[in-house]
């Protein structure tokens, strides 16, 4: 049995592209290239450009993790060079994906979530780093701890059809509540195909957030629990903020929101911050750094 063909045939049922789309797929020398070729090579409505599509366990192009600093800088340039409508870069095993608009700018996972959520019924499940009460106050969002186990559990409990994480994981009820970078790409391409019918490009809708997000920062500390307690003691003094301890420490204020939690895999604290403007972002980031020390 040809399992690549079987998998592609399963995924093909989700494709809906009324208008032609030109796409760059960067497989990071991982496992997705063979499936994407079976799915989109010679597709009548999707013109696909494949790069780094040959599997290689050394991952020579730019590494297997798109979140590694500088790892996907060349993807945006490739998008511009090939003049595609959208770029997609996958991690090594294909369970994560990040998208680029036609101008070569990367979308956050939550921006991509905003694009595809219209095809799914609420509620949606997002990890704590989304800071959804601040960033998406009008959406029906269930927030949960970071990680596959917690996202899936919440989706099953709330009968949610779509979930997403900061790290590029997208979860689908119609994919057995599992995460799939390829299926996320299918839905993004569908979305863009529909968008093009109205004469719009991805860059015209991708940057609609009225806040600034600081990329996740790591702090190396001797006692993660003690460091979180120190931050809590500081922020709890402000009676206008709301504190949540769902996943580490989350602080909601009028002009900012933050989450800081201990990594489950490394001796680090992971810090996420959003703010209404650059001045507030810089002030709060500086205060946290002052309390915890320099970031790693």
TrEMBL record:
Task: Report domain Alpha-D-phosphohexomutase C-terminal positions.
Answer: 216-288
Q: What is this protein called?
A: Phosphomannomutase
Q: What is the lineage of its organism?
A: Bacteria, Candidatus Colwelliibacteriota
Domain of life of the organism encoding this protein: Bacteria
**Provenance organism:** Candidatus Colwellbacteria bacterium GWA2_46_10
**UniProt key word Secreted:** no
Q: Which InterPro entries does this entry report, sorted A to Z?
A: A-D-PHexomutase_a/b/a-I/II/III, A-D-PHexomutase_a/b/a-II, A-D-PHexomutase_a/b/a-III, A-D-PHexomutase_C, A-D-PHexomutase_C_sf, Alpha-D-phosphohexomutase_SF
- What keywords is this UniProt entry annotated with? Isomerase, Magnesium, Metal-binding, Phosphoprotein
Boundaries of each Alpha-D-phosphohexomutase alpha/beta/alpha domain copy?
3-104, 140-204
Could you state a single Gene Ontology molecular function term? intramolecular phosphotransferase activity
Pfam family of the protein (one):
PGM_PMM_IV
Q: Name one GO biological process term.
A: carbohydrate metabolic process
Known cofactor(s):
Mg(2+)
